[in-house]
Design goal:
The protein is an alpha/beta fold. The strands form 6 sheets. A 4-stranded mixed sheet has the order 2-15-17-16, with helices on one face. Helix 1 runs parallel beside helix 2 and helix 8 packs parallel to helix 12. It starts with 6 loop residues before the first strand and ends with a helix. It has 13 helices and 23 strands.
């Protein structure tokens, strides 16, 4: 690590006021890009965030034969992708969400698609998704369900698709996006997806269904573990990517901790992003939240106790709550964290390791963490290891903001999803 890559998180004073325009939702942008690859025509998408994950997705789609023109405000995407027999190689870099969507697209091709990525991506399993592909006519070459992997389609679903939903909703999103194509190819009216195990992060699947509905494809839940998708062709058109609710969590937390006010200009209560419920968590800690037309969070004079909370439905913002927890008024037990072991890093044990080094009193189980607050005790100065994980840096900005003695080992790690994060953070100083 070169010395210039480190960054001391500035201390914040109480009572700041700031207005932030969030980057577009990465989750929505990646889904819209993948769907656009299946459209026979041109889609015009505004609000796509400029970051490593979307850059990786766009490069991969171009390799698949999709024409993409990145304008200053609108990206035009002309499909369909190449479904033919040509062999292609894709580099998903560090983007797990892109990887799962690209695996789904690869299953529709008759040729071989080799997908690889950064070393941090290679350790993340795709086994549940590969199992579905193999069960439905695809050849998949992969060592233990990880990247690099080679997929040879085309996928021919015969009846319901059965998939494990206990590790990540991204597997289900991948098959949900391609399900209308599979049903159309075999001349059936619908494609059913049967989810097995304890489903995590259902709100992210609802985001997928919402983005599909914008393309005139109306999928629905038959029951809590069964999805039905119609045989359909996705429509072209104009689409807007709203602000990222996961990114909003950092500023919501900072306003809450410091009695400040942050106005988020491009996100409000009309969103279907599950991470927007982090605002409810901040209200439980004493913040007031305005949600009409924008989101404005005003922190309390004194934090309220929050003894226990289940974050299973908001895994990407659970790390924000973990990182800010030593600054709360009383101990907190955060549960529902079992899926955090399978993210860019182990987002349960890695933050626990960092906080222990700082002197935080905590304990963990497979699915929970219990943290005691610092109180009057200041933490030790610390060089934060981010483990190549953008959310480690941004989440721990909350803890670093209180003391000014936490240094991030790699300032640029935030480029994965939010290149302007540190500039926006500086608006609070």
């Amino acid at each position: 690590m070169i010395p210039d890559s480190t960054f001391l998180i500035p201390k914040l004073s109480r009572g700041f006021e700031a207005s932030i325009t969030l980057p577009g939702s990465k989750s929505i942008a990646l889904r819209q890009l993948a769907i656009s690859a299946l459209v026979d025509g041109t889609s015009y998408i505004s609000g796509i965030p400029k970051c490593d994950d979307t850059d990786a997705m766009i490069d991969c789609l171009r390799t698949l034969g999709v024409a993409i023109d990145e304008g200053s405000s609108v990206t035009s995407v002309t499909g369909p992708m190449n479904f033919g027999s040509a062999d292609v190689e894709l580099n998903a870099r560090m983007s797990g969400a892109s990887t799962r969507l690209l695996i789904g697209l690869a299953a529709l091709r008759s040729g071989s698609t080799r997908i690889d990525g950064h070393e941090s991506l290679r350790v993340r399993t795709n086994a549940p998704l590969f199992d579905v592909l193999r069960d439905n006519g695809c050849d998949v070459i992969s060592d233990a369900g990880t990247l690099p992997a080679t997929i040879k389609g085309g996928m021919k679903a015969d009846g319901a698709l059965h998939i494990d939903g206990s590790l990540s909703s991204q597997y289900i999103t991948a098959v949900t996006v391609i399900a209308p194509v599979l049903a159309h190819r075999r001349g059936e009216a619908t494609q059913v997806i049967q989810i097995h195990g304890d489903l995590v992060s259902r709100p992210y699947i609802d985001i997928t269904l919402n983005e599909m509905a914008k393309r005139s494809v109306a999928g629905e839940w038959i029951d809590p573990t069964v999805l039905s998708l119609p045989a359909a062709r996705y429509q072209s058109g104009e689409f807007v990517v709203e602000g990222d609710a996961s990114a909003a969590s950092y500023f919501s937390a900072l306003a809450t901790l410091h009695g400040g006010t942050v106005t988020l200009t491009n996100l409000d209560a009309t969103t279907v992003q599950g991470d927007y419920a982090f605002c409810d968590v901040m209200e439980s800690l004493g913040s007031s939240v305005e949600r009409q037309g924008l989101t404005r969070i005003t922190g309390p004079r004194q934090l309220k106790p929050l003894p226990q909370i289940d974050m299973q439905e908001m895994p990407d913002v659970a790390l924000t709550l973990i990182a800010m927890s030593p600054l709360l008024a009383t101990p907190i037990e955060i549960s529902g964290l079992q899926s955090l072991h399978h993210k860019e890093c182990d987002r349960l044990e890695c933050p626990a390791t960092e906080m222990r080094t700082m002197g935080v009193d905590l304990s963990t189980s497979h699915s929970s963490i219990t943290v005691k607050p610092f109180g009057s005790q200041a933490p030790k100065a610390h060089m934060l290891t981010t483990y190549h994980d953008h959310r480690m840096a941004m989440a721990f900005a909350t803890l670093g903001s209180a003391y000014g003695n936490v240094t991030v080992d790699d300032k640029a790690v935030v480029n994965k999803t939010y290149p302007d994060f540190w500039q926006d953070y500086a608006r609070l100083i």
